[in-house]
Amino acid sequence: MTFPDELSCRELVELVTDYLEDALSPAERVRFEEHLIACPGCQTYLEQMRRTIDVLGRVTEESLEPAARDQLLDLFRNWKRGDRVN
Amino acid sequence: MRLAPNDVAGSAGVDDDVRLVELLRAGDERAFAALIDRYHTVMLRLATVYVRDRAVAQDVVQDTWLGVLRGLDRFEARSPLKTWIFHILVNTAKTRAVREKRTIPLSALWDPTTADSFEPAVEPGRFFPADAPRWPGHWTSLPPGWDAVPEERLLSGETRSLIHAAIDALPPSQREVVSLRDSEGWTAVEVCNILQISETNQRVLLHRGRSRVRRALERYLTGT
Q1: So what's the ipTM on this one?
Q2: Angstrom distance (rounded) from CA B90 to CA B106
Q3: In DSSP terms, which residues pair with B127 in a beta bridge?
Q4: Is B143 close to A75, i.e. CB distance below 8 A?
Q5: Which residues of A touch B177 (CB under 8 A)?
Q6: Which residues pair with B139 in a beta bridge?
Q7: What is the reported pTM?
């Protein structure tokens, strides 16, 4: 049985980021959480999104290439020597 | 002198910024090295959203660093150093982009409604149709949980490579917002401020990007 104002799973997955970002209105938040309590599939989905964010947080940017780094340090030395008069 | 990478990180306070700028003004090379190690690759990636050509993007970032050094005497710590640097980057990149032939106008760059139409977080086929007699819009079968996936697997080099590939495959605007928010740890306010986008657009891009990465991870972890 589905009530007209009840969220469907399909709608819930589109609100996950708003939920995690605390951007839902209080009423929307209640609807979201009411669905969640009763729906193991959406609980799993939310947990997957949380783990995805967690894994994304462990991704590190590739480090600066040595040649580019040297070039920038040269830029700094040049600036230090004379460019700063500008 | 103490200059751990974290001192240059986004969470650094006003005092750290003031101190760092003093070191730079004094010509301290280690301070500059810490700064480029922290931000250069992030800046380069962001620049490529505005100018597609990697060589041009490298120019843009180099010009930005020069602009930062030349502007140091004007920096007043009213905004964080990071914000100031990235503002210079975005302005430099935009100026440069205007000179390039672009297929997408600058104004549409961060607007998910013009860049592409509605993009569902999950394939519609995984839900019962809206007119189904039972459970309309509900999962046809429950998504397999990842509880059985050992933590070591999630942290493995292979998973990291997969995540890198999934991020690289995102449309540029989604890739940027996801990287800055989730990998670099910027706040929503910082991202909106530096990219000059609305909170709503920021959230839509973050949502779509994260959803795509979740999907890639799901395929990899559960083979579905």
Answers
A1: 0.90
A2: 11
A3: B139
A4: no
A5: none
A6: B127
A7: 0.89
Q: Does A30 touch chain B (CB under 8 A)?
A: no
> Cα-flanking dihedrals φ and ψ of residue B136, to 5°?
-60, 135
For residue B188, pLDDT beyond 80: yes
Q: B94 vs chain A: nearest CA distance in angstroms?
A: 22
Tell me how close the Cα of B204 comes to any Cα of chain A, in angstroms: 8
Reference B209, options B112, B93, B124; nearest CA is B112
Facing B163 at nearest CB: one of A16, A55, A84? A55
Banded model confidence at residue B7, pLDDT cuts 50, 70, 90 = very low
Average pLDDT over residues B47-64: 94
Q: How far is C-alpha B23 from the geometric centre of its chain's CA atoms?
A: 28
Contact B160 A44 (CB under 8 A): no
User: Does residue B127 sit in helix, strand or coil?
Assistant: strand
CB contact under 8 A, A48 and B199: no
Q: How would you write B12-48 as a 3-class SS string?
A: CCHHHHHHHHHHHHCCCHHHHHHHHHHHHHHHHHHHH
pLDDT number for residue B4: 44
Interchain proximity B183–A56, CB inside 8 Å = yes
The rounded distance, in Å, linking the Cα atoms of A84 and A82 is 5
For residue B109, give the DSSP letter.
Answer: T
Question: How many CB atoms are located within 10 Å of the residue B127 CB?
Answer: 22
* C-beta separation of B224 from B218 below 8 A: yes
Strand blocks (E) in chain B: none
Residue B81 pLDDT more than 90?
A: yes
Cβ(B44)–Cβ(B11) below 8 Å: no
Distance from CA of B127 to the nearest CA of A (A): 6
- CA separation for the pair B42, B192 (Å, rounded): 16
